[in-house]
Design a protein that fits this description.
The protein has helices at residues 8-26, 28-35, 46-52, 59-70, 73-86, 93-118, 123-131, 134-165, 172-188, 191-219, 222-232, 244-261, 265-272, 277-286, 288-306, 317-325, 328-361, 369-389, 396-406, 410-413, 424-444, 464-487; strands spanning 450-455, 458-463. The protein has 504 residues and is mainly α. Strands 1-2 form a two-stranded antiparallel ribbon. 52% of the residues are buried. It comes from Komagataeibacter xylinus.
């Protein structure tokens, strides 16, 4: 099946839907008061209002916001592309999202309470209050900032991909993606993605439901679709979904992605912007609905094979499938859904990274809105550089590279909540060791997310992020023991500090 060329109808519908979303988000400060006429007015400083939405988002907005920044261009572009190229291995994203929700239910309300009581806006704020270390605060902040750059880059690739599918080539699609994201975030702050995330979700649901109903009808049903897909994918002995040598990388990538998911500054921003701990628990119960949608989206990679889509650019799999099956105007609508699906989370990511710069990396804490906007713009420029200079074979590799970096904050942020006698010097030593080890492996492996290991007759490829986290934890525990023995410290001297409000 040959994809049709996009016509004016496709371009017109795309521009109408995408621009309307940007305008709604950018002008949110004008129309949001109309939604809150019956609510008591709560006053917040401008920095907290821009970066955390005033910490007043209820269950519905938090559900759309957290789901919106958790399910991104990674979901719509990168996962089907990986399924198209590798088959069942690409479905590792499903178990990881299932693993992460109990983690949110159990851990995130406690983090939210600590952040609310201490007036903290970032993970680095919490770590500094907990351990009283400026160095550890910087380590966590820089990890979050560096990790989110390739993730934002992936969103820019998502927007660029659909603009390219509309027939535009060269640097224009990438510049279009960058300018759209910059304007949307600069003008709207966190209220822009929070109040337009429902538009993104509705558009994605329409596109996905249409795809899983109409595409199989065109291809003779799901049975014919799966049969056609197996003829294009590598044969796996025994009728298994993944081959034996893919089992360990499948499981370890799912586990490392689950650990990393809510360490990113953007996902944590969505959590900290909730109005209560119960709001977070309610969302943990209902967020798995997104996993069902993710599974349906992953099937698009198999549908592309059945539809005869042949492309050397894996990111073009879904756009080419939509052009081949849908009428031109509806393909334009689906492209707009993908672009908005990248715009909303990219905006939250940029705001989360800007919060890190303003609160933790600059020498003095600042609530300046203009400063935060400039910091967010600088983050997006950095992400643009990742798109231009990083040579990732698959867009999903950019997200997994960020995962290796952000996982190194797990001991300080999550293990720091446990009654363990962890000291700041030990955590800093573990963070440095894990980061250097993980990035070194990524460099040697050409940005591949797994690394081959062999010992005692066992050999397999294991998630690089999980290997680096293992090194991090071992170094942290050993250094912690050495420091306690060297100093003869009593347990009480190494207990974490109580949460405290940071002085501006």
């Amino acid at each position: 099946m040959i994809p049709s060329l996009p016509d004016n109808a496709a371009i017109g519908v795309f521009v109408l839907c995408f621009v309307a979303t940007i305008v709604l988000g950018s002008t949110v400060r004008f129309w949001r008061p109309l939604l809150n006429r019956r609510k008591a007015v709560t006053h917040h400083n401008q920095g907290e209002e821009w970066g955390l939405g005033g910490r007043e988002f209820g269950a519905w907005i938090t559900w759309f916001l957290v789901g919106g920044d958790f399910y991104t261009a990674y979901t719509v572009i990168a996962v089907p592309a990986l399924v198209y190229s590798t088959g069942g291995f690409g479905f590792f994203a499903l178990p990881y999202t299932i693993i992460v929700y109990p983690f949110i239910f159990a851990v995130m309300p406690k983090l939210w309470t600590i952040a609310r009581d201490g007036g903290h806006a970032t993970a680095a704020d919490i770590v500094r209050a907990r351990f009283g270390s400026r160095t550890l605060e910087l380590a966590v902040a820089i990890s979050g900032l560096v990790a989110v750059l390739p993730y934002i880059a992936l969103q820019l690739i998502g927007i660029r991909t659909v603009v390219e599918a509309l027939g535009y080539t060269g640097m224009l699609p990438l510049l279009f993606a960058f300018v759209s994201l910059a304007a949307y975030t600069w003008l709207g702050g966190l209220h822009a993605p929070a109040l337009t995330a429902f538009i993104k979700d509705v558009m994605i649901y329409i596109a996905v439901l249409a795809a899983v109903i109409i595409v199989p009808i065109h291809l003779g049903g799901y049975g014919a679709m799966f049969h056609a897909a197996t003829e294009h994918l590598p044969a796996i002995p025994g009728g298994h979904i993944v081959s034996q040598d893919q089992t360990v990388p499948y499981a370890t990538l799912a586990l490392s992605s689950a650990f990393a998911a809510f360490l990113y500054p953007h996902t944590l921003t969505g959590i900290l912007a909730a109005k209560s701990a119960d709001t977070i628990r309610q969302n943990a119960v209902f967020l798995p609905i997104y996993t069902i949608v993710l599974g349906l989206i992953a099937l698009l990679g198999l549908m592309a094979h059945a539809a005869g889509i042949v492309t050397t650019s894996s990111s073009q799999v879904v756009p080419q499938l939509f052009l081949a099956i849908f009428p031109s105007w509806f393909a334009g609508f689906c492209f707009a859904a993908i672009a908005v699906g990248a715009l909303v989370p990219a905006s939250v990511m940029a705001i989360g990274a800007a919060n890190l710069i303003m609160h933790n990396i600059l020498p003095r804490h600042s609530e300046s809105v203009t400063g935060a906007r400039l910091a967010g713009l600088g983050v997006k420029v950095g992400a643009l550089g990742c798109v231009v200079f990083l040579n990732a074979k698959f867009a999903i590799d950019l997200q997994l590279l960020g995962g290796v970096i952000i996982l190194q904050t797990f001991p300080a942020l999550i293990m720091g909540l446990l009654p363990l006698r962890l000291s700041a010097p030990a955590l800093i030593g573990g963070w440095a060791s894990g980061s250097l080890f993980g990035l070194g492996l990524c460099w040697m492996d050409g940005l591949k997310p797994v690394h081959p290991i062999a010992f005692g007759g066992f050999s397999a490829s294991v998630s690089t992020g999980l290997l680096a986290l293992g090194v991090n934890i071992v170094v942290t525990m050993v250094l912690g023991s050495v420091i306690r023995l060297a100093l003869g410290a009593s347990p009480s001297t190494l207990q974490p500090r109580q949460s405290m409000r940071r002085q501006s």
